[in-house]
Amino acid sequence: MRRVEGSRPARAVVIIVAASAALALILALDLVPFLRGAELFHWQWPHEPVPLGRALALGAGVAVFALVAAWLIRAAWTRGALAWGMLGAVALSLLVTWARAGDPLAELFYRTASLTATGPYTAAGLIDWSDPAWHDWPAVMVDYRELSQHVALSPPGLPLVYAGAAAGFEQLPGVAGAIRRALVPLQCDNYTLLQFSAAEWAAALVGLLMPVWAALTVLPLAAVARRMALDAPWLALLWALVPAALMFAGSWNTVYPALSVAAFGLLLRGYDARRGAGWWAASGLIAGLLTFANFSMIPLVGLLGLYALLRHALNERQARVWWFPVQVGAWFALGLALPWLVFWALTGSAPFEMAHVAFERHLELDRPYVPWLWMHAWEWALLGGLPVVIAALLALVRWRRGEDVLPLALFGTLGLLLLSGTARGETGRVWLFLIPFALLSAGQWIARLGTPEERARAWRGLWAAQGVLLLALASTWAVMGAPDLAPHPDPPPARAAAVPQDTRFDPGFRLVGWSAEADDGAVVLHLNWRSERQVTTPYYFAALPVGPDGTPGEAVVWQPDETRYPVTCWRPGETVSDAVRLPLPAEASGDWFISLSAFADVERPLETVGVTLPDGSRDRQIGLGPVRVG
Hints:
Blueprint: H1 7-29, E1 37-38, E2 43-44, H2 52-74, H3 78-101, H4 104-113, H5 120-126, H6 137-143, H7 149-152, H8 157-170, H9 173-183, H10 191-194, H11 198-202, H12 205-208, H13 210-215, H14 218-227, H15 232-237, H16 243-247, H17 256-272, H18 277-293, H19 298-316, H20 324-347, H21 351-362, H22 369-397, H23 406-420, H24 427-430, H25 435-446, H26 452-476, E3 499-505, E4 509-518, E5 522-531, E6 540-546, E7 556-558, E8 575-583, E9 590-599, E10 611-612, E11 618-619, E12 622-629
Antiparallel strand pairs: 1-2, 3-4, 3-10, 4-5, 5-8, 6-7, 6-9, 9-12, 10-11
Helix pairs in contact: 1-22, 1-26, 2-3, 2-26, 3-4, 5-8, 6-21, 14-17, 17-18, 18-20, 19-20, 19-23, 22-23, 22-25, 22-26
């Protein structure tokens, strides 16, 4: 690349840093709410600052990451730097999640299990994969319209990932059981999730590890940067400071960039190989798998196609035959179509039928066209990293024939996306897969500087600007959550037991006390329970009143605290009070007894669990009484 005088790019970096610092202050104080969107246009991110202590901890984490990364790069320890980049991406992702929500692992589980925030995990657990009805995936998409917008708009790729993970955990029952016991307390009163098997609970590990999968972007980004003769460590490690990659932790959109840049790397590899067909087909295959996961990844195909056309037209037309891009496109299309053709052959669900259902729903949203041209571009640039996007734009403006055409392909694709009007908000998340290409384009601009020292100063400036904006956004904007899920509920009020008891129920809880009193044609039974271990099944209880003459009354079946605090919520060692009203026959009197039992399946109430009575004997129920009535 041609050398450019150092002073002008240096001034540009100073301007980027200063402007980023000013913008960070404006965003942190919410001086211009319009920068978060506009309620007039039915979209605005909430401004909800995190506690100051957490914001300071986040700032310290960003500073430590950047300082250690710069030291590793200066020491020329490339492998150590890349490892630190991945570790930092994971750690900062967890730190951002902690700053926003408190417990990062719990929050990642909520985002994984939420039908609002994501959707594929819970959908995979609800779908009966043994029933061929799911083969009609367009019908499944229609069924999910009221449950999960994301599933209703998507192909089956992601639910199949979770179903495959569950099938794998079926072969590891001990591991699956341990994972379920660890996760059940996080959604202990969610009766939808509680019906899942241990393997299906364990499959949530795919979502919990999303920050790890997202951090892998560092590796293909570094590989592509080296192939393009860019400053690979500086460029790749900057991924850990991309706001959207950290703030949307738990979303599959944070994973797509790794595969997107890998597809681009394989495309480049094909250009350098003697026979590139296999590389181009492999690139197409990755792109096909991405579109099979989410239709929002279709623009990646456009980006790679536009890159191939521009590269040939502007740089290689004299060196290659005119039909060379057609050859590249044909092999790419073969790989692209493969996942879809296999699924079509196995299930009968055609790709165009799924696309019709998705876009029929997606495009029905009515929003003004012109304002969203700015809002979509602004959100993508801001949450992706405005300093990086500005540097990428400078690469576009200063592009010269003979240089790599990536900036032209990137912003050409972005322009077509904006003008098409197909976006529906959240472009910072949905278009996150374009940010690695902005990083590579920014690297091309910095590569114009002549000496390594000048380039290192420019990278440090870009890192500083990116870090400041990351801190402002992550500590004030609430962009990711799971509003349809609630954390662990509070236990019901404690009540002293009049009659001590020590009866153990096999699942792992004890009845430690009880009392009862007659009340207007009924007996009100109070029970005190103590949990011995984490229970993963929401057991039901049944109480049968028995009269003085042995005649049974009406049995009552219930969940503790009127379903609000089931057995699955009982923490080990915790004492839980519960109460139930048992109707009695008219004019009942005398000493009544109550048969108390527990069972797992409401459809099979006679299959009660074993009980160990205080004297050590075994039974399937415990008798409580007498209770004086009348």
